[in-house]
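Sequence in, structure out. Go.
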Amino acid sequence: MNKSLEGKGIDIFSYLFMTIFSLFCILPFILILSSSVSDEKAVQMTGFVLIPKEISLFAYRVIFQDNAIFNAYKTTIIFTVLGTVLCLILTSAMAYALSVKTFTHRNKIAFFVYFTMLFNGGLIPTYLLITKYLNLTDNILVYILPVMVNPFNMFLLRNFFKQIPESLAESAKMDGANDIYILFKIILPLAKPALATIGLFYGLAFWNEWFTATLYINDKDLFSLQYLIMKVLREVDFANQVNELPGVTLNYVVPTNTAKMATAVVTVGPIIFIYPFLQKYFVKGLVVGAVKG
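Output:
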């Protein structure tokens, strides 16, 4: 059918609006990337611009000055992937158990899980538990084990499971299937949007982890990427403060502003490439999982 003139006008306006909106979303990333490859003196004189006047990779040389950044990348990727997979398995198992109406104590267990969202033991008991009893100091598992199940993610996934017709599980049980088979062969394949949403939550939490390394990691090879980046920025700020002392002059300009932009590119880059593949599941999983309590 041929669209009316009014319909064509609405389409043109919609495409034009979305194009302008997309440009406004992309411009900050272009500005960060441009500023990260700019010369520090030029940034101090003219500020952040979309097109760098003087190109310099000194900020990246400061970040990649040794192999520490590559070790941090490797460590972060390992515990992010492994942690996300394990968290999804345990969260799915618990969410499925609490979504089954025939499970007698599901409401009591759900209350205890919800209770942990309101109260916790505090930093000192947690530190003693992890260091003295679990002996996870300088162990990559310290990034994963303490956060295996997030209560919010579990409830979000449980609510999604409740939307799946019970007749599917009942018919499978009549054929002799157990709960493990039902979960992995029937429920989880239908819950891809919710799993993508929860997986993105877990993945971002692991990728942005830095506080755990501050408390429990002394081995440089086990530093997380975010912690190492924060450490580099502190060293840059310290060098900048030393340069401002009377009688002290460094033979180079400390890349204070450009280093911050370069760290943003280094840390955010991988997430930007992964997010588009999960975006189509993300909104659907978040909305459906939040419909029913």
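Check: The radius of gyration is 25 Å. Residues 256-289 form the longest helix (34 residues).
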